[in-house]
Amino acid sequence: MYRIGQGFDLHRLVEGRALILGGIKISHSKGLLGHSDADVLIHAIIDSFLGALCLGDIGQLFPDTDEKYKDADSMNLLRIVLSKVKEEGYEIVNIDSTIQAQEPKLMPHIISIRQNLAKNMYIDLNQISVKAKTYEKQDSIGHGEAIAVYCNTLLKKSSV
Ligand code: CDP
Ligand code: ZN
Questions:
Q1: Would you say residue 160 has pLDDT above 80?
Q2: Which end of the chain has less neighbouring CB within 10 Å, N or C?
Q3: Domain range spanning residue 40?
Q4: Best residue among 133, 135, 149, 150 to mutate for probing ligand 1, ranked by most atoms within 8 Å of CB
Q5: How far is the CA of 121 from the centre of ligand 1 (A)?
Q6: How far is the CA of 18 from the centre of ligand 2 (A)?
Q7: Closest ligand, as measured to the CA of 9
Q8: CA triplet 97, 17, 64: central angle to 5 degrees?
Q9: How many CB atoms lie within 10 A of CB 29?
Q10: In the structure, what pLDDT confidence band is assigned to residue 32 with cuts at 50, 70 and 90?
Q11: What does DSSP say about strands 90-100 and 128-133: parallel, antiparallel, or unpaired?
Q12: Considering the entire predicted model, what is its pTM?
């Protein structure tokens, strides 16, 4: 009836790239490096869905060696994975995520990120939680060299 999944992702923060989290562009001196748009939050959400249903991981579905996914909009990848979740007969109960970022300050952006994710996944705002934490200036995240995200998702079998 219920399936729980967890997802994790990390991308390097570098100059000359846009910072996109949950499909929202955030003004910052650096952005996340990756083959796609490097939306680390969406990637962790995707892996939590795939994990819940034992469907592998994001790299298996969308290989970063495939030119097709170069600069891909991660929201499109999320839509594809969500349609798989529905095909398997499941729906989202709730998603809870934590962004680990020393900077920028994310609190002012959290509501737009949640609204954008809720809209694109056809769920209510209270089904998607996004939290932010610094790394207390420790390690690569704390030195502003990377952003990581942990995500847990609960799915339930849709009633027919
Ligand atoms: O106080 P504690 O160690 O639990 O958390 P922190 O990492 O010092 O972050 C304090 C608060 O700042 C968090 O609860 C978030 O609301 C906010 N925060 C943020 O807006 N943007 C970040 N990149 C990190 C944290
Ligand atoms: Zn990623």
A1: no
A2: C
A3: 2-157
A4: 133
A5: 26
A6: 14
A7: 2
A8: 70
A9: 11
A10: very high
A11: parallel
A12: 0.96
Q: Say how many residues make up the chain.
A: 160
Query: What is the number of structural domains in the chain?
Result: 1
Quote the CA–CA distance of 93 and 157 in Å, as a whole number: 10
CA-wise closest residue to 98 among 17, 12, 22: 22
How far, in Å, is the centroid of ligand 2 from the Cα of 38? Answer: 5
pLDDT at residue number 65: 86
Dihedral (CA of 36, 65, 84, 90) sign: negative
Structure tokens at 105: 């300050």
pLDDT digits (tens, 9 = 90+) for 111-143: 999 999 999 999 999 999 999 999 999 999 999
**Which of 15-19, 31-35, 68-72, 145-149 bottoms out in mean pLDDT, i.e. has the lowest?**
68-72
Ligand 1 binding pocket includes 81 (Cβ within 6 Å) = no
DSSP secondary structure string for all residues of the chain: -EEEEEEEEEEEEEETS-EEETTEEE--SEEE-SSS---HHHHHHHHHHHHHTT---HHHHS-TT-GGGTT--HHHHHHHHHHHHHHTTEEEEEEEEEEE-SSS--HHHHHHHHHHHHHHHT--GGGEEEEEE--TT-HHHHTTSEEEEEEEEEEEEPP-
Here the tokens at position 131 are 């939290």
